[in-house]
Write a structure and sequence with these properties.
Layout: H1 3-12, E1 27-29, E2 45-56, E3 59-67, E4 78-79, E5 82-84, H2 91-103, E6 110-115, E7 118-120, E8 125-134, E9 147-154, H3 155-158, E10 165-170, E11 176-184, E12 187-190, H4 191-205
Amino acid sequence: MSPAETRAWIKSRLDPIESYDPATRKVSSDTELNPGFPAYAKPFSPAAVLVPLVEHDTGMTVLLTRRSDKLRNHTGQVAFPGGRCEPGETPWETAIREAWEEVGLDAAHVEIAGLSTALQTGAGFDITPVVAFVRPGFVLKPSPDEVADVFEAPFSFLMDPASYELRSMVVPSGATRHFYAAPYEKQLIWGATAIMLRKLYERLYGPPAE
């Protein structure tokens, strides 16, 4: 497909921001891989992340961050730029604001493509992934208080189910919890970020064969 056809194809499989409705959107949970765990029964705080698809001439990549070791939560984990929604903000407004605050990504380089499947997490967040096309030529300025590293991974790698391993860990309660992880160079993409990427894959290609 040409770049224009690829853009149109991706947009056609996402929820347009013009019809955004929190009550009818698709929502997933990070308990889906762990059916023995009880469903979350807490009020969720609305949050959003930007899923930046960088349109290089050599192929599309996804811009990701590694969270600072100074943060109290999810220290050192690979994540999308994002955070908690401020009162009155739409998810896409939050995602663009957070991308500017965290890595200095100028909104002039960002074009919203649509919304992917929301994710509710055990940390109490209801995260809306805002997928966007990003024009190259930007200059990033990561916030040292929030971001330890910024890198790009090939979109083709992240949209390949074979890139993900099913791993497990023992949580403080003693139970075993399963999660997806995608090793890429020196980084490990796992947890909520891996789930949102796999949900984006399902939007584009359908459920992967397990």
